[in-house]
Amino acid sequence: MSYKELKCVDGILLDDEEKNEMVVTPWEVKGRVDYERLIREFGTQPITDELLQRISKHTGDLHLQLRRKLFFSHRDLDSILDLYEEGVKFVLYTGRGPSGPVHLGHLVPWIFTKHLQDKFDTRLYFQMTDDEKFVVNDELKLEEAQNFGYENVLDLIALGFKPDNTFTIFDVKDIGLLYEIALEAAKRITYSTAKATFGFQDNTNIGWIFWPAIQAVPCFIHAKLTGENVPALIPAAIDQDPYWRITRDVAPKLGYYKPAQIHCRFLPSLVKTGKMSASQPESSIFTTDSPDVVKRKIWNAFTGGKATVSEQKKMGGDPYICSIFKYFAYLFEENDDELAEWNRKCRVGEILCGYCKTELTERVNQFLVEHQKKREKARDIIEKFYIER
Ligand code: TYM
Fold first, then answer.
1. 98 in ligand 1 pocket by Cβ < 6 Å?
2. I want to staple 269 with a disulfide (CB 3.0 to 4.6 A). Which of 13, 210, 276, 295 is the partner?
3. Phi/psi at 205 (nearest 5 deg)?
4. To 10 degrees, the CA torsion angle through 107, 109, 112, 114?
């Protein structure tokens, strides 16, 4: 079955009021996210079937997140493949802003990044932006952000990234490695560009204004460490794209390749209003949640079901807007035919929300039991993943 039959994964309802203005920035996502509009407004490229075919030449079967077009947009992915086919390798770069525990949405691009690391046998630079979260969040102490950074890396390691090929950067601890390139980048980004890109205001603190130069650095760090100038490919949700716009402008001025991106959609919030965030714990499932908490969150989740059982049996539900269905589509139902069956049965009223919630609770808890064990074991090997080791 093709991704087209899974079109229902396209309608991500992040907020109650559809008329709400869509906002997608690195710090805020709200309103109904219109991904086609984002492609137009951000000036990115859609991932075409032709590009998917090209990727599959190198990876074999397409990863679930590509088949279902959860990764839907890119910049220069075709150039990365051109270079790769000419024998120029690329490195991967992604990251995390540690303001709380990791939720399942964060795992979406990381799982895909791991797939790329395996298939292309390439390095990953992973940036833990404790400094970013400290400057943008009035409530967060620096030490808290650093502690979350440590805890969040355990989640990355638990996914099975290869230590020899994975280099984590903790910004505050590793600033010595980053600072020279950050200065070179910062000198070439005007305040008016940064303001137009990020919407800075007069009352924005100056730490935040300098900060984007630091997120640019890992795009180029490989050259500094190894002397090898190769492009970086960044898998992340589309909220991070503004950073890459300014980084791509600066790259040629510094003698580097423009970094390429591959953008994914957002795993939606479990509650109808509001986005998935640590400040609204019921909106997402954290990797450290206990089975009971997972069960409660899933049972309280927003679905596409009707008000009564008889109505639902008669008219069916709407997986297009259902957060539970999205969890299956993004992470917990690998088989495309099975997913199409969930979709069909829901639409014709053959299954009810309780059935889907029970099944999802079981699958999430099964995954988390294993993940949490691996997370604990990761404490013993974390140093193998440090960039300076
Ligand atoms: P952060 O911590 O907000 O998010 C970490 C990664 O998770 C993605 N993401 C999601 N993906 C799918 N569904 C969701 N609901 C969802 N929520 C978040 C984000 O796009 C991101 O990829 N400034 C960054 C840290 C960073 C970074 C990077 C991220 C530094 N360098 C390079 C990506 C690539 C941040 O605060 O991410």
1. no
2. 276
3. -70, 155
4. -70
